[in-house]
Amino acid sequence: MRLVAIACIGLAVYLQFPLSRQRLSLPTLVTHFINPKSKTKQTEPRLASNSEIIRSLEMIRLGMSAGMTVADALEFAMKRSPRTAALEIEYGLNQFRVGFPLERGLEDMAVMNHGWRSISDTLINSINSGSSVVDQLSDVEYVLQSSIDTEKLKQIKSVAVKSVLPLGLCFLPAFILLAIVPIVAGFISGISK
Length: 193
What we know:
The structure is a single chain. This protein has helices at residues 2-16, 26-34, 50-65, 70-80, 83-97, 102-112, 117-129, 134-162, 164-192. By secondary structure, it is mostly helical. The protein has a domain at 50-138. The two termini are 24 Å apart. Mean pLDDT is 81; it is low at 20-34.
């Protein structure tokens, strides 16, 4: 009975504080079990997250407010952005470097990662109209930051729901096995004597 209670508590702790769980593909699992010392790791190209895009947007806005052109501001941001965002900016700039319009590179960035959509639309409007877009980029940054904050709030709210699962599945049965059952058993044995 104590072993079951300990197992329940152990399961509850594992559910409450999970270890890092890697998602492994079937070929990686097979390779790992055939040769456990092999360090094969399948890497998929990762898109820039919204927070990385915001950091890049801050650099683009800084460059634009300093009087740089859109291409120069993108180059400036590429050198100072997180790696994944820098690679996506570089992808758009490479098209410009080989002779395509910068609008095409910005549009391809937005197609590749939808987080760039509002930024690329604002920069394309700036290129086409020739106007300064520092204020519009500030508005885009505010909207993107608000969406990140909303996602974080949703995650925080879901933690409250998820934290009830270990309590209901493990702690309560363990409490019943360790506390309630011995009391009831003692009470029944006391009555039967």
